[in-house]
Amino acid sequence: MICYATFSGSSGLGYEVFCSAGFSSGGILSVYAALLFNEISCCISSGALSTFKKLFVDKDSCECSIIPGIIQHADFPDIYASIAPKLLFVQSGLNDSFTGINTGSDECFNKIKNAYSLMNCNSNLRIDLHDNGHNYDSISILKWLEEYFC
To answer: Based on the structure, what is the number of domains in the chain?
Structure first.
């Protein structure tokens, strides 16, 4: 989903934001949209961060989120990292049965954190881990949006 939002904070300043957001395969598609469209300045990806190996070799997941030929050039964490310095909220459930993400998945998160660090925009990245498995936690996403824009 791509949405347009106008925020007005307590300072009276208004913000206009195009945001891509999605859950599960939609979370991957939201990152692709943020990568391809300059107008999108904010990306929310929930229940999607993994690696090609975890999704398509270790499991038999739907291949709808693979761009033909991309596997030879980049993995999902690389694609997430490439949208820096745009705002990025990545949400993953620990022990997510879809993504294979668990407490040992630091390699995915570190690649994204390193890219945001290199671009000197650490404050534009939020990684939210929760205990709810393959689930979308809208409350933490709304709190992040409120913190950032209001």
So the answer is: 1
